[in-house]
Amino acid sequence: MMQRFAGTPGKSGIPMPYAGVARYSVRWILPTKRFRAAEARIAPRDAVQKPRGFLWHLRGILEILLLFLILSIAMYLVGGTVNASMRPRSSMSQTFYFCAGTALTIG
């Protein structure tokens, strides 16, 4: 059975059941040659909200990485890590390397 269109088919093109509900024209949903750049603008609220939601879903992993960073700095400042070959104080990068290796081994 063929659906009837609201108004003239050339103007709206929206089937009858959706004629009163649709907020956007079919041209906005299905871009054609007449697609205008003004209809494709991104709202600033959406541009900020999407990355914020992405970071919110990654908050557990980011908290673990922050804890690793804090504990590594504490080990460097308080723990007195030393180089195994000649016993001088190890650098910050060597301390991070040691902590990462220990975390991978234990985890």
Secondary-structure topology with pairs:
Elements: H1 26-29, H2 44-57, H3 59-79, H4 92-106
What does this structure look like?
The chain is mostly helical. The protein is built from 4 helices and no strands. The protein has helices spanning 26-29, 44-57, 59-79, 92-106. Helix 3 (59-79) crosses helix 4 (92-106).
The helix content is 40-55%
Strand content: under 5%
What's the overall geometry?
A: elongated
For the termini, the CA-CA separation is: 63 Å
Q: Give me the secondary-structure category.
A: mainly alpha
Mean pLDDT: 74
Number of domains: 2
- Give the C-alpha Rg: 30 Å
Biggest beta sheet attributes: none
List segments where confidence is low: pLDDT < 50 over at least 5 consecutive residues: none
Overall strand count: 0
Tally of separate helices = 4
Question: What letter string, H or E per element, gives the SSE order?
Answer: HHHH
Key traits:
mainly alpha, 4 helices, 107 residues, 2 domains
Quick synopsis:
The protein has 107 residues and is mainly α. It has 2 domains: 1-41, no CATH class; 44-106, no CATH class. It has helices at residues 26-29, 44-57, 59-79, 92-106.
